[in-house]
Amino acid sequence: MKTIGVLALQGAVAEHLDKLEQIGTAGKKVRTINELQQIDGLIIPGGESTAIGKLLDDFALTEPLEKLIKDGLPVWGTCAGMILLAKRICGQEKTYLNAMDISVRRNAYGGQLDSFITTCQIPAIASGKLPLVFIRAPYIQDIGKTVKILAEVGENIVAARQDNMLVTSFHPELTHVDDFHKYFRQMCCQ
Ligand code: GLN
To answer: By residue range, what is the domain housing residue 67?
Structure first.
């Protein structure tokens, strides 16, 4: 059976582990290089990208993780996780894992009080409409040629895929649906 890791430095870790359990997949908290090597895919949760980015450095995980992703480890970044995976972050020099060919805008919808829930059809993920929860969310401002858009809300790209990398601006782990987790599990089986 495949094991999906959840980067457990800060943020919505427990919620992702609960979802993995609900779909009958082994989940594992990841905090060390050794644990990184025991998984078939990694979820980088939402939280605060600056905090998770600093902890990645403190735990000496930035370089090994960057390399594993380059070598094909399936990875899914939700919200702050998407910011950590991006090659470009609007308005700041600092990037983190430099993995996915996207430009993201942090806090693109405003602050905590501008958090919102909407629904969206995402054919790649499920046939029905899916609930999307945005919390101080980023969106994708620009994509490279090989990035596939999965979902847009209004004018903005909020979910995308490039090879072994999946990103969502929103938090599927905070909703009743498990389609995203099943989709990512499939990515881990390829
Ligand atoms: N605003 C946060 C950041 O910039 C992301 C928020 C989230 O993950 N819900 O890192």
So the answer is: 3-188
